[in-house]
Amino acid sequence: MFSRLSPAAFRLLRSARVAHLATADHKGRPHVVPICFAVDGRELFTPLDEKPKKSPPLRLKRARNIILNPKVAVLVDHYEENWRRLTYILIHGRAMLAMRGKKHRKAVRLLRKKYSQYRSMRLEERPVIIVRYISAHSWAAKDA
């Protein structure tokens, strides 16, 4: 659970505006994309939202990869020119796609609370990736 993170790492996880989701296809080839996300105590949620995309939501590479291989990683980091303030969290988890249901509604609520842009999108009609926490590693430079 995310509560196993240090208080500073958990604050970064809750406040970060962007992360990177890594999936792998059936041959193990990695695919990494930036994501908007929200978290609760055990899961991370990221929508396949209405921002322009080349494919329908379930045909996106990340969605196809999750269907074939649910093992994912999420990297949340903080960068500054003062490298003594660098920090990151690497989360390993199992992902699933949700189109409806209790977790989907929770995800939509959390995402809209965090990102004002999502308040005008039809997220309730879009798939959400739910990443269930397996483990996490955090690192912070000396002054972080």
Describe this structure in words.
- The structure is a single chain.
- By secondary structure, the chain is of the alpha+beta class.
- The protein has one domain (2-140): Roll (Pnp Oxidase, Chain A).
- Helices cover 21% and strands 36% of the residues.
- It is built from three helices and seven strands.
- The protein has helices at 7-15, 61-68, 102-114, and strands at 19-24, 30-35, 38-39, 43-47, 71-78, 87-98, 128-140.
- A seven-stranded antiparallel β-sheet has the order 2-1-5-6-7-4-3.
- A hairpin with an 8-residue loop joins β5 and β6.
- The longest helix is centred in the C-terminal third of the chain and has 13 residues, at 102-114.
- The protein is globular.
- The two termini are 22 Å apart.
List the SSEs and their pairings:
Layout: H1 7-15, E1 19-24, E2 30-35, E3 38-39, E4 43-47, H2 61-68, E5 71-78, E6 87-98, H3 102-114, E7 128-140
Antiparallel strand pairs: 1-2, 1-5, 3-4, 4-7, 5-6, 6-7
Low-confidence stretches: none
| SS element count, helices | 3
Query: Span between N and C termini?
Result: 22 Å
Spatial extent as radius of gyration:
15 Å
Q: In order across it, which strands form the biggest sheet?
A: 2-1-5-6-7-4-3
What series of H and E elements makes up the topology? HEEEEHEEHE
Q: Which structural class do the helices and strands define?
A: alpha+beta
Gross CATH architecture? Roll
Report the CATH C-level class: Mainly Beta
Q: CATH homologous superfamily, by name?
A: Electron Transport, Fmn-binding Protein, Chain A
Range of strand content: 35-45%
**Helix percent band:** 10-25%
Rough outline: globular
Give the integer mean of the pLDDT values: 93
How many E-type strands?
Answer: 7
Number of domain modules = 1
Main pleated sheet: 7 strands, antiparallel
